């Protein structure tokens, strides 16, 4: 399949982002709550997919959650506890850049969790998610798939690009040797946690632009008719000439270099 041209991608993305705003108004109107989990291999494109959704929505309504390594206190809590405060309230959407499924993926493969902890997680996760769904949360779980050759290209790009180098970590270097192990962990996770009330959806992200479009299209297609009346806002003409910024105190604008 030919690579999607940037112009075509941007045109399609704009159409989808208009629909996302319709969805956001529907959430506010109905008080519904949405949780979207973005899982997948390193470099798959989770951050870019999340940005494509969040950048066109109000940050007061759309929340991006990307938790760091658990603190010592969090490590002593019930495993799901640190994620619960980030669940949405009425009319909100929460986008998890990795989620509680860390335990079934990186923690399992890299030895950060014991076999007993992983087994307990795989047993508890469907129960936890069933409770979320029974309470009315619309839960969507996406796995972003990428082949190893493409993953290697993206790792190399991050290494050479000083703007993207922050995305690399020692864990990423070790993970390169465990591509097959991650695949086996993923399959075990799917077998234990793919249920009618919370199914997994796999999206091909070897082409990230196509992947973003397909993921957003799929997400929107899972929702009911989101059309609600759009509030009409009127802008009457100003009563005088437009004002200019003026500063009477000691603070002045910086002298721009560009």
UniProtKB/TrEMBL annotation:
It is an enzyme of class 2 (transferase). Keywords: Kinase, Transferase. InterPro entries: P-loop_NTPase, Polyphosphate_phosphotransfera, PPK2-related, PPK2_PA0141. GO terms for biological process: phosphorus metabolic process. Residues 234-258 are annotated as: Disordered. Residues 4-225 form the Polyphosphate kinase-2-related domain. Its EC number is 2.7.4.-. It holds the Pfam family PPK2. It comes from the Bacteria. Belongs to the polyphosphate kinase 2 (PPK2) family. Class I subfamily. Homotetramer. NCBIfam families: PPK2_P_aer. Uses inorganic polyphosphate (polyP) as a donor to convert GDP to GTP or ADP to ATP. This is ADP/GDP-polyphosphate phosphotransferase.
């Amino acid at each position: 399949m030919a690579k999607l041209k940037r112009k075509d991608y941007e045109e399609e993305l704009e159409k989808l982002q208009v629909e996302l705003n319709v969805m956001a108004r529907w959430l506010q109107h109905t008080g519904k709550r949405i949780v979207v989990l973005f899982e997948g291999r390193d470099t798959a494109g989770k951050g870019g997919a999340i940005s494509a959704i969040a950048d066109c929505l109000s940050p007061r309504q759309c929340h991006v959650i990307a938790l760091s390594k658990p603190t010592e206190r969090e490590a002593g809590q019930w495993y799901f506890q640190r994620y619960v405060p980030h669940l949405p309230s009425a009319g909100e959407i929460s986008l998890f850049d990795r989620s509680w499924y860390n335990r079934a993926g990186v923690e399992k493969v890299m030895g950060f969790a014991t076999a007993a902890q992983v087994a307990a997680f795989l047993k508890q996760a469907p129960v936890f998610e069933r409770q979320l769904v029974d309470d009315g949360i619309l839960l969507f779980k996406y796995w972003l798939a990428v082949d190893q050759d493409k993953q290697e290209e993206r790792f190399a790009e991050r290494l050479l690009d000083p703007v993207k180098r922050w995305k690399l970590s020692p864990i990423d270097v070790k993970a390169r040797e465990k591509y097959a192990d991650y695949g086996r962990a993923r399959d075990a996770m799917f077998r234990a946690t793919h249920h009618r009330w919370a199914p997994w959806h796999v999206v091909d992200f070897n082409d990230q632009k196509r992947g973003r479009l397909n993921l957003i299209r799929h997400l929107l297609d899972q929702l009911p008719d989101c059309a609600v009346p759009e509030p009409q806002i009127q802008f009457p003409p100003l009563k005088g000439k437009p004002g200019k910024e003026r500063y009477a105190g000691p603070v002045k604008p910086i002298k721009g270099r560009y």
